[in-house]
Amino acid sequence: MPLEFIEGNEAIARGAVRAGCGFFAGYPITPASTLLQYMLDLMPRNDGTAIQAEDEIASIGFCIGASMAGRKAMTATSGPGISLYSENIGLAIIGETPLVIVNVQRQGPATGSATKGAEGDIQFTRWITSGGMPIIALSPANVAEAYELTVRAFNLAEQYRIPVFLLTNKEIGLTQETVDLDSVRLPEIINRTRASASEAYKPHQFGSIEQVPVISDFGGEHVTQFTTSTHDQNGYLTSDPEIAQNMIDHYIAKIEAATDEIALYREDMQEGAELLFISYGITSRSASVAVKQLRDEGFGVSSLVIQSLFPVPETAIKAAMKGIRKTIVPEMNMGQYKLEIERLAPDGMSVIGVNKMDTTLLSPSEIIARGGCRD
User: Fold this and answer.
1) Looking at domain 4-183, what is its CATH homologous superfamily?
2) Residue 246 pLDDT > 80, yes or no?
3) pTM score of the predicted model
């Protein structure tokens, strides 16, 4: 395939098709609307189904149903829409439903600036449902990564039976770049593990607490249950405190036990560096330019670009911070992921947030100046 000039939303749609997505539902909302348009075009041509639902709540509900019936499913929205998704995200977690949720972030709060970018939903995504259940969230920095991480999002959703978020923003979703998608290295496609027709089946059966249950498609080989309420491994409602806690521990353990396996990041470490940049998403592109400028001036600087925001790749972050005097965390919000860095920082290390929510991108010069990188 020759070089193409495409936007991030189209790359995500094509990544979904490559991953085997068979169902999409969404509702128009800037800056995610073109993703809906691409899926409406691509799904019928690839043996899939795409629906423009009546609203955001219906969109994610349709996707949960399609996923439990056996289809790989994806939905997409932006800030106000992700708020409306929240109850059904809890349902996807308690029902252990594989699902990809794309959030093309925009300036907020509330309606905010619908045509302006930001990365303001980071902590909301992590804590979107009751009880602090862990989720998986990936963050691309460009069009090629949007394509790759979409495939990885589907793999993770299928592997761990969990909703997986792809957090982009207006700048990535609607900005066109020259890419060769055939040159993007993709992982092998992973499909959910299904129960055999001959075996007795419990929809949430696990032995060890971190084990991911096999799945049986609704309408298939087994009679199964699916509920929004507290349930046991059979999917039957329960008020037994011990069973309830065991299920909660399971939802947490299956993700926390796989944190290092899920971790995705790019590191550019310089021996002897005392300054570290930790960045993600669109802001990592400005951070990389800032790193180069400082190195050209003779400063020792290392860089860690995080692609899997949650679960937090603690092992990689702690390793990157060894010997570091100051860590700079630039973000298009008022300091959300900085909180994760601060709790991992060793005593005596300074963590400086460079934050901005005026609808414009952080520039390399702003990051250097406001981060006190030359001090």
Assistant:
1) Thiamin diphosphate (ThDP)-binding fold, Pyr/PP domains (3.40.50.970)
2) yes
3) 0.97
